[in-house]
Amino acid sequence: MKLASLKHGRDGKLVVVSRDLTRAIEATQVAPTLQAALDDWPRAAPRLAEVAERLEAGLLPSFRFREHDCASPLPRAYQWADGSAYVNHVALVRKARGVEMPPSFWSDPLIYQGGSDGFAGPRDPIPYLDEKFGLDLEAEVAVVTDDVPLGLGAEAARARIALVMLANDVTLRGLTASELAKGFGFFQSKPASAFSPVAVTPDELGAAWDGARLSLPLLSFVDEAPLGRPNAGVDMTFDFGRLIAHAARTRALCAGSIIGSGTVSNRAADGGPGRPVAEGGVGYSCLAEQRVVESLGGGAARTRFLQPGDRIRIEMRDAAGHSIFGAIEQEVVASRAGQ
Amino acid sequence: MKLASLKHGRDGKLVVVSRDLTRAIEATQVAPTLQAALDDWPRAAPRLAEVAERLEAGLLPSFRFREHDCASPLPRAYQWADGSAYVNHVALVRKARGVEMPPSFWSDPLIYQGGSDGFAGPRDPIPYLDEKFGLDLEAEVAVVTDDVPLGLGAEAARARIALVMLANDVTLRGLTASELAKGFGFFQSKPASAFSPVAVTPDELGAAWDGARLSLPLLSFVDEAPLGRPNAGVDMTFDFGRLIAHAARTRALCAGSIIGSGTVSNRAADGGPGRPVAEGGVGYSCLAEQRVVESLGGGAARTRFLQPGDRIRIEMRDAAGHSIFGAIEQEVVASRAGQ
Fold first, then answer.
1. B183: which of A107, A180, A252, B68 fits an S-S bond (Cβ 3.0–4.6 Å)?
2. Is the pLDDT of residue A338 over 50?
3. How far is A88 from chain B (nearest CA, A)?
4. Is the Cβ pair A110, B79 closer than 8 Å?
5. Quick one: B321 and B261 in the same domain?
6. Domain that holds residue B237
7. Are residues A214 and A322 in the same domain?
8. What is the domain-level CATH number for residue A191?
9. Which PANTHER family does the protein's record reference (chains A, B) (predicted)?
């Protein structure tokens, strides 16, 4: 089934969405919000699935679903733990900074605790605060978990994945280096993330979902120009089972925890960095990586970070070309706050 | 007024508590949970204050309040952003590790994004997972904010402080160094924190509260032996206004965000590290700091980290010796999970 939260109060209003993203039904008779449904998932999930089935069969009155009416599926959450599962991406960025990457990064997942108290909606603007902040997108896959007990293993963790969605983990590149140097993780460099209009249960993903990894191209665009289409199932060093197990090593995770994959990134066929889309490669899921590749190729980075008026789009299509999660479409808008 | 959450479901049941912590009244007619009250604070706060007034006057039927029935005031939260405002503590710990502290740490606040999806209750056990993890307490002061707009300044941020409470930011010292080295912040090294049974509005603190700083000794005990009694108003390099402004520099903060002070730490009169309580000093708010002082004095650290069966206690008393927030009292209990 596919679920969304229409903008309404702080936590949205839960709706069940048709597979083709055209129709929806309020699910408030099951749970008022997605978090409320997740808090009681073993009871709520089958009831929501029943609504979804009747919606597909046209047995219930429905209304037209509009992605731009959506908040993020969880407009705020109790946890947003974002991994860096495509170690290729981390290695590249470090290489460009001339910093050696510890070999342990290939065996020990990197995860940072992200701010989860207020996500942007999938069609909300991205505030542009300061040229120096170096505004960037990061296209990712994310999962929402049911309750995860302390110390659960990676294999068992797969069964705790309730929903899958896409994320734009907005990043201020001008602030990441100093925050990394402090060692305390990202804070100011990570303003509000946004998620796809729709979150789907893993069974909607068919053969593209192996239980812990989603093998489809993740499409990113800046001003309608394709930035990247790397396959999210390729070069993912740590799958979602591993990421959840890492997060739950010393504490339980509450239902509704969001675990992110980190920026999706594929190597080129020769094992080196992927090439830009314009040169026939699968491109990148953030501007920083494209800039890194430009600078590694000799010369300066040519790609600029986001500016007011820029529009980004992130989506994923199934084998038949249909949008699975709806699209994250955000415009960068100048803001006076925070300067 | 004083508020608490009795254990009940995932988010507790909101009660108003008498000033002397002996009686309570359910506040569910105002809001079912503390988060719900904070979500509508300008409307809920005066109504809760009215209940508190009637409770003090004996005008409403009340029941006996027991601290051990409490969850943390917010049993889970949308944000737990923990500062390191007593830079003295950071400088000491770095000195012991032989690592230079950047001078910017005295002017640019350190804050890490903590896990907030499930806090321990103030009387809940602390799971002991592995000897190598080096289990430690960290006694802190924390505030809960109302909504904070993006870019709010430090002075204006003071008025967004809705509640004050105490925290035990449980820390696994054996995991902090490797997580600091990764740069992505603390994750596995910070299992569930616990907060005092009661959260209070700033007006309850009288002259001890200057709007952004609480000038009273923070008392910590391990197995009933005093570990520390540093004054939380002394050597706090960044007050809560500064910490909130830092957190809100690039994004708004949702009502119910918890901002922590970091481990409270005072220097000795000569400007050097504080002395242990046993030697007439004000002691420490975590075992790591006592160990650092032992090792700086030549020789090895003698103080051991927490073991199963140990009990910690954290509280704060007003000028008349009365407990303000109730006590965090946690026993360390061996757990098989997570190994």
1. A180
2. no
3. 16
4. no
5. yes
6. 73-334
7. yes
8. 3.90.850.10
9. BLL6422 PROTEIN (PTHR43211:SF1), FUMARYLACETOACETATE HYDROLASE (PTHR43211)
